[in-house]
Amino acid sequence: MPSEDAAPPLDVDQILADPGVRIVVCCGAGGVGKTTTAAALALRAAERHGRRTVVLTIDPARRLAQSLGLTELDNTPRQVKGIDVEASGGELHAMMLDMKRTFDDVVLAHTDPAKAAEIFANPFYQAMSSTFSGTQEYMAMEKLGQLHARGEWDLIVVDTPPSRSALDFLDAPARLSRFLDGRMLRLLLAPARSGGRSMFSLVTASFGMFSKAVQKVLGAQLLTDLSGFVAALDSMFGGFRQRAEQTYRILQARETAFLLVAAPESDAVREAAYFAGRLREERMPLAGLVLNRVHRPAVPELDAATSRAAADRLAELGGHEGTVEVLRAHAALARQAVREQQVAARFTEAFPEVPTVSVTAQPADVHDVDGLRTIGAAISRS
Amino acid sequence: MRGAERPTDPAGTGWPARLHVVTGKGGTGKTSVAAALAMALAAGGRRTLLVEVEGRQGIAQLFGIDPLPYEERHLTAAPGGGEVRALAVDAEEALLEYLDMFYRLGAAGRALRKFGAIDFATTIAPGLRDVLLTGKAKEATTRTVDQRRVYDAVVLDAPPTGRIGRFLNVTAETARLAKVGPIKTQSEGVAALLRSPMTAVHVVTLLEEMPVQETVDAIAELTSYGFPVGRIIVNGTRPPLPTGRAVSAAELRRGLVAAGLPTDKETVAGLHDEARDQLIRRELEDSLRTDLVELGLPMIELPLLPDGVDRAGLATLADALLRAD
C-alpha cells in the first residue's frame, strides 16, 4: 500500500518485548477498535513476550469484557485465565475503570474517614464524580498512576476514554488540577475578602459581579453545597494536583509508548493526525499508528474498473449470474481499498516519520481470546 | 410560541418534529447524517439550522469550510430554494450570552473570560455546560420573528450513544442541584421540550455488531428517560445481492473465461475467498438488521457512498432521507 511504502513499518512486537517500555497508551477516535486493540496487545505481551501485563479498559463492549473474564466493574485488576502463557511465563490481568469508585478512592487516600463521609454525602460531589465531563478522563489517568506506582506489572496497556476529542485525555489532568487548585473557587466564594488586597482591581471587581451573577443564576443552595464541597476538599488540593502532574510526567517518559489507533475513514484519520500533533507539542513519545479495518482485495491486480466492465459484459451475455456478483463485489472492494489508501495517505503525508501498520478488516467482530490472538498476530504481522 | 404554530411536519415528510437530535456510535457517520437531514428538511424553500455542540468543528470539516464561529451562518442551499444554516455552540460563549441577557455584564464579562473564569464555571458546575448547549438548541427551535418561526427545523449533531442519555438528561440533574433560580427554570424548560413531541432523537448505526448493540442500549436508555425516539438510521448499507448464494470455483472459472479475464489459480482462489467473506459479512448484516427491526421503530437505510462523504454524497443521503415515509 502506498501509505505503508511511505511510512516506516511499525514493529509492535519490538515495543511489547522491550523491558524498558512499561506503559502502552492506545488512543484515537471512538469506533476504531481501540479497546480491542489494547486487549489484543496486552494478550500478546503476556503470551508471546512473557510479560506480567495489566490492561486497563474504559468502556469495553460487553462481550469483549466477558472474554477477559470481566463481568462487573470492580476496579481491581483480575487475572485472565485460560490463556496460553505456559511457555512464556507471562500473566494477563484486566480491569474496567469504575470512574466513581476511583474518585472515591482518591478522596479516601487523601483524607480521614469522617471528612471522606462528609464529601461523599455532598450532592455536588455526587454529581461531579459521576457526570462531570472530564472526570472519566482524569480518573483513567489517576488509575494509570496508581497501577504504575504499585510497580507490580511489567507492562500496563491503557485504553483511553472515548473522548469527544483527543484533547480531553491529555488536558484532563491540567483541567482538573485547575479546578482543584481552589484559588478560583475561594475567590468565587469570598470575593470581598480578596478585594482590598488585589492589584487587579478590574478583575476582582468583575469577579464580584460574576459571583453575584452566579449566585443569582445557580441559586444560593448550589453555592452552599459547592462551598461545603470546597471546604471539605481543601486539604486535598495539593495532593490532587501533585498526582495529576506526576502522571503527566510519566506519560512523557521513555517508558511510555503511545499508539494511535485509527480506521481508514476521514474523521478517524483527522483525529489521529491531530493527536500526533498534540503528542509532539507535549513531547510525549509516539510509537506509531495502528490502522485498523483496512480492506485488501485478494486479487489486487484486477482493478475496480476492469472488474466492473467485465461484470457488465457477462451480465449482458447471460448465464453467469454468480460470477457477475463476485466481480461486482470485487470491484466495490477494490474501489474501497483505493479510497482507504488515499485517506490514510493524508496522515502519512503530514507525519511521514511515524511508523504505521495496517490491519485487515475481520469479517466479524471479535469477542473471545482466540479472536484477540488473531488480531494481535495481524497487528504484529506474524 | 403556541400562537405561531404551523404544521409540525416541516418538509411534508416522515419527520414530524422540530428539534431533531442525531446520535450514534462514533464512526457511524452521525455528523454526515445530521447534515443530510438538515438539507432534506430545508428542501422546498424552508430554512433549517444544523447545530454542533462538541467543539469538534465536524460541520466545517465535512463541508470543507473555515471553522464555524458561535454565530448562525449560511451553510448551504437546499433543493427548491431552501437554506441550511449552521451553528457551532460553544458553552463559554453561550454562558456569556446568557449572563449578558439577564445581567448586562458587557466589558466585565470579557474580563472574566481573560481570567479563565468562564471556562472555570462551565467546567465545574455539573451539567451547566450541557444545559447551556441544549438550552441554545431549544432557543433556536422556538425562536420566532413576527410570530413566525425562524427555523422550520433544528438538527442537533449530538454526543455519541455512550453519552447521549446523560447529555439530554443533564437538565434534570441540574434542576435537582439548582433548586431555585434561572438555571432551574431554564433546565426545566429544556427538559420539557426534549420530552415533547416537538423533539425526536434519531440513532445512526451501521450493520456492525458494536454499533447495533449500542443502538439497542441507547434506545432503552432514552426510552427510560422519556425522550421520544424517532428513527433508526442505518448508514452505509449495500443493495441486496441478486442471487446471494455461494459460487463454486468451477463456475467462477467458466465466468472468468467468458469475461476474458485471467483464470490462473491465484485469481480464481482469491476471488472465491473474497466472495466467501462477502457472504459471511452479508449474513451477519442480515441478522443485525433483524435485531434492529425487532426494536419496532421506524427505520431507514442510507446507501454506502463508495467515494466517501462529499457534497454529492450528502445530496444523495438527503434525498434518501426525504423519501422516508
From TrEMBL, chain A:
It holds the Pfam family ArsA_ATPase. GO terms for molecular function: ATP binding; ATP hydrolysis activity. Residues 22-294 form the ArsA/GET3 Anion-transporting ATPase-like domain. Transmembrane segments: none annotated. It comes from the Bacteria. InterPro entries: ArsA/GET3_ATPase-like (IPR025723), ATPase_ArsA/GET3 (IPR016300), P-loop_NTPase (IPR027417). This is ArsA family ATPase. The lineage of its organism: Bacteria, Bacillati, Actinomycetota, Actinomycetes, Micromonosporales.
UniProtKB/TrEMBL annotation, chain B:
One of its GO terms (molecular function) is ATP hydrolysis activity. Pfam families: ArsA_ATPase (PF02374). InterPro entries: ArsA/GET3_ATPase-like (IPR025723), ATPase_ArsA/GET3 (IPR016300), P-loop_NTPase (IPR027417). Residues 20-176 form the ArsA/GET3 Anion-transporting ATPase-like domain. This is ATPase. It comes from Micromonospora costi. The lineage of its organism: Bacteria, Bacillati, Actinomycetota, Actinomycetes, Micromonosporales.
